[in-house]
From TrEMBL, chain A:
CDD domains: ABC_MetN_methionine_transporter (cd03258). InterPro entries: AAA+_ATPase (IPR003593), ABC_transporter-like_ATP-bd (IPR003439), ABC_transporter-like_CS (IPR017871), ACT-like_dom_sf (IPR045865), MetN_ABC (IPR041701), MetN_ABC_transporter-like (IPR050086), NIL_domain (IPR018449), P-loop_NTPase (IPR027417). It comes from the Bacteria. This is ATP-binding cassette domain-containing protein. The keyword Magnesium does not apply. Gene3D superfamilies: 3.30.70.260, P-loop containing nucleotide triphosphate hydrolases. Residues 2-241 form the ABC transporter domain. Keywords: Amino-acid transport, ATP-binding, Cell membrane, Membrane, Nucleotide-binding, Translocase, Transport. GO terms for molecular function: ATP binding.
Automatic annotation (TrEMBL), chain B:
It comes from the Bacteria. SUPFAM superfamilies: MetI-like. It comes from Cytobacillus stercorigallinarum. This is ABC transporter permease. CDD domains: TM_PBP2 (cd06261). Signal peptide: none annotated. InterPro entries: AA_ABC_Transporter_Permease (IPR051322), MetI-like (IPR000515), MetI-like_sf (IPR035906).
Length: 340, 220
């Protein structure tokens, strides 16, 4: 559990002040995957680094596992840090140590006996699927393999919390997917609370339960990923969602449709549970209206279906409006205007 | 004037031994001292694990004052100090002190430079795992910088052979002394050549050993 209450972090001198984090209050609940998204410079890394006090807050209160952390002594702080695993965009592996040595490092810090340590390192190697790389040095590994080592190293001491600073930003899409799968596995099998930051909405969509959107050091929107996706409040949030859920028709296509104008265009927004029923064809048939799906984007989000279709209804105007009325009872509908 | 080679060879062997002794002793002391100063300089830097403005400025200033002084002048300048500590300014042992001081500051800079080039993210990762500053110094900083550090120290060693020859000319013994008395003052070219060849050989050996060691630690 991580709780920020009115936390601010300011960098710099009197003349040149950078308010990296401003009055942030949020809670990451035990066992959930919480994502923070924002553009470069929004203050995401700073916020994350406050969790294990790599950065000290200028004001406000941070509570981790029921303990106020900014009042900890050096020794208590080191203890706390061993309960929080951290992974990084650039992996930050020790280049002078083998894969085995990297994973063993936090265990040595914690004073594990040789036999127990060996057993645990092997267990972690198996968990991330790198048994055959134990004696290799990091420089001979691929990006995805390096991040696996990073994850194994971060989890070696069985922490309760894993914090991830852009853990997939240096990876290609396929490797990103592998690492995200691994994070999901970490969360499920070990019930580890994960707080991750990213600038890719795709990452949020893929693994997070809840999300906070950051801009200029502030959290401007927060909630269940599904709710934020279906009812975004801020322009920045909408932009992020558009980056993964492109359901805008190009103006070029709209123009072409206008030329051959036949019927009205509607965007049908699907929410949970309805998109596996043939509502569109059922209702249209009933009123003898033709429909034509121009564009569609339905995907899975948090194990629910979500997305929208752009549909053209062709038929008597009265009948079309009846269809719309009936559909509106089940799904959300918005008319799309040609001239834009 | 012709050299009597029968009595001269033992002198050469003795002088070579003195040079090697001077260099090795200096190397040991200067490496230890330089490592301590270099590490202190690094960890007390702004934003680093044991940030301390005063220690940093003091050490930095000290290095910047001592390093630019030409060794031969430094040697003479600190001779009162050498006499105070060692009781004399003549002989191999007395030469080791100024050599160690001069070399230690050079080693310190090399240590610092190699530490600066370590990715700060690696240090941060260790901190995030709960490693103490001392722990980070010994288990992260030194191992991560070891390969290039050995190359740097090899470079210093080659310089030390040079220093030892200079120290020799002001009574420090060794090959420099020999080259001075026979080669320079008595214009005996053959002695000069032998000394130069031996010095070149020593440099080659030092460089070879250094390269080998650093390759081992760089694992490349
Ligand atoms: N140690 C520091 N000293 C001074 N300013 C800092 C420091 N760390 C961060 N900042 C500033 O704080 C602001 C937020 O930085 P932060 O790294 O948290 O952003 P971010 O959202 O993680 O961005 P990115 O996606 O580029 O990593 C930036 O303006 C940055 O320049
Ligand atoms: Mg960042």
């Amino acid at each position: 559990m991580i709780r920020f209450t009115n936390v601010s972090k300011t960098f710099g001198t009197k003349e040149n002040v950078v308010k990296a984090v401003q009055d942030v209050s949020l809670e990451v609940k035990k066992g959930e995957i919480f994502g923070v998204i924002g553009f470069s410079g929004a203050g995401k890394s700073t916020l994350l680094r406050l969790v294990n006090l790599l950065e000290r807050p200028t004001s406000g209160e941070i509570i981790v596992n029921d303990k106020r952390i900014d009042a900890l002594s050096q020794k208590e702080l080191r203890q706390l840090r061993s309960r929080i695993g951290m992974i990084f965009q650039s992996f930050n592996l020790f280049s002078s140590r083998t894969v085995y040595g990297n994973i063993a490092y936090p265990l040595k810090l914690a004073g594990w006996s040789k036999a127990k340590l060996d057993q645990r390192v092997k267990e972690m190697l198996r968990f991330v699927g790198l048994e055959d790389k134990a004696t290799k040095y990091p420089e001979s590994l691929s990006g995805g393999q390096k991040q696996r080592v990073g994850i194994a190293r971060a989890l070696a001491t069985s922490p309760d919390i894993l914090i991830c600073d852009e853990a997939t930003s240096a990876l290609d899409p396929e490797t990103t997917e592998e690492i995200l799968q691994l994070l999901l596995k970490v969360n499920k099998e070990y019930n580890i609370t994960i707080m991750l930051i990213t600038h890719e909405m795709h990452v949020i969509k893929r693994v997070c339960n809840r999300v906070a959107v950051m801009e200029d050091g502030r959290v401007i929107e927060e909630g269940q990923v599904f709710n934020v996706f279906t009812k975004p409040q801020n322009e920045t949030t909408k932009n992020f969602i558009r980056s993964v859920q492109n359901d805008q028709l190009s103006s070029h296509l709209l123009e072409k449709l206008q030329e051959s104008k036949r019927g009205k265009l509607y965007r049908i927004i699907y929410k949970e549970g309805v998109s596996n029923q043939p509502i569109l064809s059922k209702i249209s048939k009933k009123y003898q209206v033709d429909f034509n799906i121009l564009y569609g984007n339905i995907s899975e989000l948090q194990e629910r279906l979500f997305g929208s279709l752009i549909v053209e209804f062709i038929g008597e105007e009265v009948e079309v409006s009846k269809v719309i009325k009936e559909l509106e009872k089940i799904v959300e509908l918005k008319e799309v205007h040609y001239a834009s | 004037m012709q050299v009597d080679w029968a009595t001269f060879w033992p002198r050469i062997i003795e002088a070579t031994g003195e040079t090697i002794l001077m260099v090795i002793l200096t190397l040991i002391f200067a490496t230890i001292l330089g490592l301590v100063i270099g590490l202190l300089l690094f960890v007390t830097r702004k934003g680093n694990i044991l940030e301390n403005r005063w220690i940093f400025y003091f050490l930095n200033l000290l290095i910047n004052i001592i390093r630019p002084i030409p060794f031969i002048i430094f040697l003479v300048a600190i001779s009162p100090f050498t006499r105070m500590i060692m009781g004399t300014t003549i002989g191999t042992a007395a030469a080791v002190l100024p050599m160690t001081i001069a070399a230690a500051f050079a080693v310190a800079r090399i240590v610092e430079n190699n530490l600066v080039s370590i990715d700060p993210g690696i240090i941060e990762a260790a901190q995030a795992m709960g490693a103490s500053p001392l722990r980070i110094i010994f288990t992260v900083l030194i191992p991560e910088a070891l390969g290039p550090l050995i190359l740097g120290i090899t470079f210093i060693t080659v310089g030390l052979i040079d220093f030892s020859a200079m120290a020799g000319t002001v009574g420090g013994g060794g090959l420099g002394d020999l080259a001075m008395t026979y080669g320079y003052q008595r214009f005996d070219t053959s002695v000069m050549i032998v000394t130069v060849v031996i010095l070149i050989l020593l440099v080659q050996i030092a460089q070879f050993l250094g390269n080998m060691l650093s390759r081992f630690f760089l694992r490349r």
